[in-house]
Amino acid sequence: MKRIDDKIIEIEKKDKTNRLLFYGIIGLIIIFLVYVNFSEKAKKEKDEEISELTIKNSETYIKLEDTYEELRNTHEELKNSLRPIEYWNHIESENSNEGYISYLTNDWGIDKKDYIPLAIEKLKSANTEGFEGWLFVGSKNNEGTYENRDVIEIIYRQFYEGETATLKNLEPQVGDIVRLQTALNRKTYQNKNITRQNEQGWRNKTRGFITEVHNEPNSTNFNVKIKYY
User: pTM for the complete prediction?
Assistant: First the structure.
């Protein structure tokens, strides 16, 4: 069975092809109308005009109209060929950090609102495929002000209604999806005190889901635990 993203790409390609066919049909109609008008002027048959009704009743126009209707119906079928429940079932069957994170951040025009809370809860659980670890991301002073150290940027927060440019540097929270900003892979650690390094680091430019946050006592260091892939 094809992966869900391959199916979506296939649908988008078919949709694009159908749009091109539709534009081609419109172009043929325009050419047909121009030809009719030019022929009338050339023959100077002022006493005969092809009315809109005549054109619509012509065999060529009827065929073009039928073809357009068929393409429109095909487009609607393609849009509905991947239903929300099918998309979610595929993501859930994979049960991976990457799958759930992509589900929350990708926008393919599929209605996901009923399953977003489930995806977040799955990521908060302990049994998804992938990696997890702690890393230092910023500092927080005694006044409670958080300072991003350009390690991560927040790209998703449920129910956030502000601008993305404002979101990315806010204090990280559990449930946020973040992206690694550094050019190199990032080391992660097995504990919140950043002492025991994991074998598998966090890859450059990939995304992670925050499951815990920790402001070290007697320190300004602000560390987060993420699930990543």
Answer: 0.66
